[in-house]
Design brief:
By secondary structure, the protein is an all-alpha fold. It is built from 22 helices and two strands. InterPro entries: Rho_GTPase_activation_prot, RhoGAP_dom.
């Protein structure tokens, strides 16, 4: 498994600053970088040409920046006192004798000892303080007042000892007592205890007896009779914890057939020139943010690692950009944004879409290793020989090589920065989910977008032959999802098994949605394209002569 380095953390305000710059509103980020708040006049001027939902998204980010600036200013004003300031007067204290830095404070010099360090003489005749443990059981003590939460029918938690009772050992004196009604609120002073229920669905290991606030609960205690705890739909008590159960429940709730919202969107993203795409990109970012905010989805773009991972191999484990650069240098191929090795494997798999269990059935381990070594060592020196070997290989061996190549990419096709945003679209459904995926796909770099397009075309052709190859849309999605959503980007080592299963099921949902909306993902929304081509509004001045 490819282990990616942990992403650096964003400092306060950095995420919002990068978002404003990506949305083409860098003028709103400049005051924050200078330690100032964005004024309402500056904000109003920037959001005036934007639609209402996009303007609301911008205002939310600017409010966060202003709040961060105010907190920084308040923290600067309220400086914590320095410990050196407390004892600074020791250096300049009066007295004929020299004093060291470890001397006592001046407040102790006024004691009867005269600063000699010995106890005063009048303290010598005082009686020795009695030992607390020895004197506790003897004598007459006033009864301890009950707290309002302790009913009269129950004894208080700290009841006085009986007269003439034998002294208790010291190790038992401070031993925690049993749990009583005084520890938990009960029916008193207008408060009625209706029931007791333990919160949460996952309980940790039980060590000995149940405890509340450090006290032991007895088996016959009324508080041990728990109310039934409701479970989530993904972990129902009557169903086993499984991937298929989680996937089927979520699919019934989220899957809806809807039409694409904009039928007049016919412009393909690949047909736009660089200058047009630069004008369109901020609008795509604003529209995506407004959509996520509308449905209260987390909008956190992963920060790319500053240190680039070293690429040791020639093909496997090499970034798409590096593979394309090699294709251009060695073969002068500039007409495609998909690396030649990926195109070759996809073409070979297209001829084998009728093979039963394609992508699912494992191939021959020895032949797979031989093909991988052949590609790694001879692809850029003997391309024709490698292509001949791939044409003779079985479909299952080719599929295994193809999956290994995709999973070894240092940057997945959905990129480290946008993979989490793709993943969170599982909470959407129908054309709303398709619109979010469409905006995310258009924001991908050209190499990742073109490679994703070829992958989705291949898997759709495999699904179209499902009557022959027995590979349904769900089966293909389960196999392709780990290549699009690497677990190292979505999970932590400490995540529970239920979290891992839910993440895998949600990743399959998004992968199926990508396959289902494949034809519309690459078209530019007509409304955003028209807005990017609209000239900025200019204020005219009337010149009177």
């Amino acid at each position: 498994m490819l282990i990616l380095p942990p992403a650096p953390y964003y400092i306060k305000g950095e995420l919002e600053t990068e978002w404003l710059q990506a949305a083409g509103l860098g003028s709103l980020a400049a005051p924050f970088q200078a330690g100032l708040e964005v004024t309402e006049a500056q904000l109003g001027e920037a959001v005036r040409p934007l639609p209402r939902e996009q303007a609301a998204a911008v205002r939310r980010r600017v409010r966060r920046l202003n709040r961060t600036v105010r907190r920084k200013k308040a923290a600067t004003r309220a400086r914590k006192p320095d410990i050196r300031d407390v004892f600074r007067d020791l250096e300049n204290s009066s007295g004929s004798e020299p004093r060291s830095r470890s001397a006592t404070p001046d407040s102790l010099d006024s004691l009867p000892s005269g600063g000699s360090g010995s106890p005063p003489t009048e303290w010598a005749d005082a009686a020795t303080p009695p030992d607390f443990v020895d004197s506790y059981p003897t004598g007459t003590h006033a009864p301890i007042a009950r707290t309002p939460s302790a009913p009269s029918g129950r004894r208080a938690r700290l009841s006085p000892p009986a007269p003439n009772s034998p002294p208790r050992p010291g190790h038992e004196l401070f031993k925690p007592n049993e749990l009583h009604w005084a520890d938990i609120a009960s029916n008193t002073e207008g408060i009625e205890l209706l029931g007791y229920q333990r919160y949460g669905t996952v309980q940790g290991p039980r060590i000995g007896k149940e405890r509340i606030n450090g006290s032991i609960l007895k088996e016959n205690d009324v508080f041990m009779k728990h109310a039934p705890v409701s479970r989530t739909k993904s972990a129902a008590s009557s169903q086993p914890l499984s991937f298929e159960h989680k996937f089927n429940l979520d699919r019934q709730m989220l899957e809806h057939d809807e039409e694409w919202p904009e039928h007049d969107s016919t412009v393909d993203i690949e047909s736009l020139v660089e200058s047009q795409f630069k004008k369109l990109q901020p609008l795509l970012w604003l529209e995506l943010t407004a959509l996520f905010d509308k449905f209260s989805l987390p909008f956190h773009k992963r920060k790319p690692p500053k240190k680039k991972r070293k690429e040791d191999g020639a093909v496997f484990g090499v970034a798409l950009e590096t593979l394309l650069r090699k294709d251009m240098i060695i073969w002068e191929e500039t007409w495609s944004s998909v690396p030649a090795i990926i195109r070759t494997l996809i073409e070979a798999l297209r001829d084998r879409t009728r093979d039963e269990g394609l992508l699912r059935v494992p191939g021959n381990k020895h032949k797979i290793e031989s093909l991988c070594q052949l590609i790694e060592q001879q692809w850029y020196s003997e391309r024709g020989g490698v292509q001949s070997a791939l044409s003779r290989a079985t479909g299952h061996d080719l599929a295994a090589v193809f999956k290994r190549l995709l999973r070894a990419l240092p940057q997945p096709p959905l990129t480290q920065e946008l993979a989490r945003l793709f993943y969170h679209t599982y909470a959407l459904s129908g054309s709303t989910q398709g619109r979010a995926l469409n905006l995310l796909v258009l924001l991908l770099p050209a190499e990742q977008r073109a490679t994703l397009r070829e992958i989705l075309r291949l898997v759709r052709e495999i699904v179209e032959m499902s009557d022959t190859n027995k590979m349904s849309e769900h089966n293909v999605a389960m196999i392709i999802a780990p290549a699009l959503f690497p677990p190292s980007l979505l999970l932590k080592p400490t995540d529970s098994l239920e979290t891992q299963l839910a993440t895998a099921a949600n990743s399959c949902h998004v992968t199926e949605a990508l396959m289902r909306w494949n034809d519309q993902l690459w078209t530019v929304p007509a409304s955003l394209l028209a807005a990017s081509q609209r000239k900025p509004h200019q204020h005219r001045r009337n010149n009177h002569t």
